[in-house]
Write a structure and sequence with these properties.
CATH architecture: 4-Layer Sandwich
Distance between the termini: 15 Å
CATH class: Alpha Beta
CATH topology: S-adenosylmethionine decarboxylase
Number of domains: 1
Number of helices: 4
Radius of gyration: 15 Å
Order of helices and strands: EHHEEEEHEEH
Helix content: 25-40%
CATH superfamily: S-adenosylmethionine decarboxylase
Largest sheet: 7 strands, antiparallel
Strand order of the largest sheet: 2-3-4-5-1-6-7
């Protein structure tokens, strides 16, 4: 299937509190993620604390030559919301594994969406994606 890009969305529930409150940890995660999914960074990761009440937390923005990586780390709930969008293929399992390694969430829910403005969006991954029949077809086609 031809597409313009791939958009991975990750909801990570109840991460280790110290990890999502650490600017150096989030910056390291971003740099390592860019390298591990074979992307080219455009500048350095921006990690900024803002918001108030139940919205307070760090936000990550990392531009990459093929699009962007963004995330928000919610202090009140210890949850993390990460988006990786690229017109270059990447392995969603690599991103999921890094989220587990860096932030140690209790659970992770992810979804990969094929982006193409000329067609309706199509899910190719729900749940963890590992073993999902549509994801297996996607892997066979793109992970060579």
């Amino acid at each position: 299937m031809q597409s313009w890009g791939y958009h991975l969305l990750i909801n990570a529930r109840r991460c280790a509190p110290a990890t999502i409150r650490s600017k150096p940890t989030i910056e390291s995660f971003s740099r390592t993620l860019v390298k591990n999914i074979d992307m080219v960074p455009y500048g350095t990761p921006q990690v900024i604390m803002f918001g108030s009440g139940n919205k307070k937390g760090y936000t990550l923005v990392q531009l990459i030559e093929t699009s962007n990586i963004t995330g928000h780390f919610v202090e009140e709930t210890d949850d993390m919301y990460l988006d990786v969008f690229s017109c270059k293929d990447f392995k969603p399992e690599t991103v999921e594994d890094m989220v587990q390694s860096y932030f140690r969430p209790e659970s992770v829910d992810s979804r990969m969406i094929v982006r193409d403005a000329s067609r309706k969006m199509m899910d190719i991954q729900t749940g963890s994606g590992r073993g999902h029949p549509t994801m297996a077809k996607y892997k066979a086609r793109t992970m060579k």
